[in-house]
């Protein structure tokens, strides 16, 4: 373990009560699905059926309920049908349960266990059958993918991208686990190259686009500008995630956070690095808005497919931001 980096984490406890609410720029109008309550009820029942949590009234059930993952789904998939929103809410629960149980694990042999679980997750993601010995997160993803593919088939532009980005997500998860086990604060370039996948945002953009049946034949989806808008969305989400989750991650001693990375790179105190991260977040949002404007100007008249995709990205930027002030997940250390 790098003693210098461990020292950074322990010293940051001094600043935890001095961290003020960030001033984040976000001019996007929030939207929320009318099906939120129904999706919430469904996803709690589904979590019990998938054995992701224990019985009603248990500690795990209460913590999951307070995390408000169906609220996040309703804010980020505002135009989804009820069936689609139920899938999205279940996916959110799967995502965080998998992350807490395996990516953030400190158990002996946790890297080997994560690799074994990922092998099975990849198999069921491509339509493979579950095995009796599979752990609940594998059975849960199998159930989610079955329902996604049942609606519109298992092939197509958006689903191919979804699986590609899920594979990158799993690879980045291994990087995350190794860094945390070493208590190593990565350099900024390393952090950016992995964190954009580790945040898990890109597959959700693909899934939302699939649900919205956005016509991928539009030339925009074969341009670098399309990829730029996607990357900027993911970047804004992970930077904001790190800013709003900083107190929890100080207490959990988790080194994967842009604030710690900037602090280590600049050799400044935590509050100065925190301000740098907020500035970066607001700069990234402006760059994102500029990229969206450029996309809209590709033709003399804004094409509906481009506006649809921008709406997908907007929903994630705004909905993710608002969720932090609803969910209890980031109010204290620990998992869900």
Category by helix and strand content: mainly alpha
**Would you identify the regions where 5 or more consecutive residues have pLDDT less than 50?**
332-336
Order of helices and strands: HHHHHHHHHHHHHHH
Approximate shape: globular
What is the number of beta strands?
A: 0
Average residue pLDDT? 92
Number of helices: 15
How much strand content do the residues show? under 5%
Radius of gyration: 20 Å
User: What separation lies between the terminal Cα atoms?
Assistant: 27 Å
Instruction: Characterize the largest beta sheet: strand count, sense, and whether it forms a barrel.
Output: none
Q: In which range does the helix fraction lie?
A: 55-70%
Task: Describe the protein.
This protein is mainly alpha-helical. 68% of the residues lie in helices and 0% in strands. It has 15 helices and no strands. It is globular. The C terminus is likely disordered.
List keywords for this structure.
336 residues, 68% helix, disordered C terminus
